[in-house]
Amino acid sequence: KAAFDEALRRPIGSDPLKSRVKPDDRVAIAISDITRATPNERIIPWLLREIGHVPRKNVVILNGTGTHRANTPEELAGMLGREVMSAYEVVNHDAFAPETLSDLGRTPDGIPVRICRRWTEATFRITTGFIEPHFFAGFSGGPKGVVPGLPGIETILRLHDAAASGNPKSTWAVLDGNPLQQAIRASAALSPPHFMAN
Q1: CA separation for the pair 176, 161 (Å, rounded)
Q2: Is the pLDDT of residue 160 over 90?
Q3: Of 115, 94, 110, 116, residue with least CA distance to 163
Q4: Given a cut of 90, is residue 165 above it in pLDDT?
Q5: Could you tell me how far CA 58 lies from the centroid of its own chain?
Q6: How far apart are CA 155 and CA 16, in angstroms?
Q7: Would you state the torsion angle of the CA atoms of residues 153, 159, 165, 168, taken in this order, to the nearest 10 degrees?
Q8: Is residue 149 a contact partner of residue 93, using CB atoms and an 8 Å limit?
Q9: Half-sphere exposure of residue 62, counting CA atoms within 13 Å on the CB side?
Q10: What is the DSSP string of 132-163?
């Protein structure tokens, strides 16, 4: 907890989180779903305490499911703790529900980008997650909390097509020249996080 608090209070390339979030902000926090080993049950309560000056009704926690199934209430309670579940709105993202998405246009490479409206309409957006080598995105974490965590199915399919995933530079621990990583960043940049805790 001390290390996490220190990271929020002395982050890399940013002012402290608490000083950046205003009490009247509408805050969206994107988390990894149950298929990822992010210790949400610890870091999310710590993060919420750090922004405790924001009314709870102004905060939504978005479970970044990508194309995965929605997590059950019991699973979410295990991931976040019952206290968080009872005090905050928690929403499973649904990539297959176009009415819940904002159309943000296209990336320079023509990828259609539609992202969860609760994310795009927030005035302060936070991603959480963990960083590890990824078999074709180079690394997990960072912008992957937004895309592919929160977009519509069309965006996700384009990011996982044969051309992107079959490129020789789409591989473990490669960021420079990795077309998939570049597409993820270009897509997420259309509604970027204001703060990331990885």
Answers
A1: 19
A2: no
A3: 110
A4: no
A5: 18
A6: 32
A7: 180
A8: yes
A9: 32
A10: -EETTTEE-SGGGGTTTTSB-HHHHHHHTSHH
